[in-house]
Design a protein that fits this description.
Elements lengths: L6 H4 L2 H18 L12 H15 L11 H4 L7 H17 L4 H11 L3 H4 L24
Helix pairs in contact: 2-3, 2-5
Length: 142
């Protein structure tokens, strides 16, 4: 790839992003450390939304029409430890997809500011509710 190759292209384009998102969210939804956050969530909708968001952020020309991170996570009570596990899983899936260290770091730099909108400041002893990471909406299964 040339020095002018977009982050979108370095992430593998639409197919590469979709694969990483699918694997990351499947693992996160089933990991005992993070699955609480995905209870009752329509995972397919979250996958589509997150793939659009990453495509838009990385310069792929997609339009992200989902909620802001603050709004979509306002009642989620996502703890820092849950967020960190999801980021760890994302890193592993980017590696698995063959994404270069530079592209991985560029993407993580774009995503890092979202932590303040996703992680709850509520007391850990509060009763948690369900939520999803980057989501178009809080679509819940009935």
């Amino acid at each position: 790839m040339t020095p002018n190759t977009s982050l979108f292209e370095r992430l593998g384009g639409t197919a590469g992003i979709a694969t990483v998102v699918d694997r990351t969210l499947e693992r996160s939804a089933n990991d005992p450390r993070t699955r609480r956050s995905f209870a009752g969530i329509k995972l397919a909708a979250i996958k589509t939304s997150l793939a659009q968001q990453l495509c838009a952020l990385s310069g792929g020309g997609c339009v992200y029409e989902g909620e802001t991170m603050a709004r979509s996570h306002q009642d989620a009570r996502i703890q820092a430890s849950e967020f960190d596990v999801l980021v760890q899983i994302l890193r592993e899936e980017l590696d698995r997809a063959g994404v270069s260290a530079g592209a991985k770091n560029d993407l993580l730099r774009l995503l890092a500011p979202m932590k303040r909108d996703i992680v709850s400041t509520a007391a850990a002893s509060d009763t948690p509710s369900s939520a999803a990471l980057p989501a178009a909406s809080q679509d819940r299964t009935p």
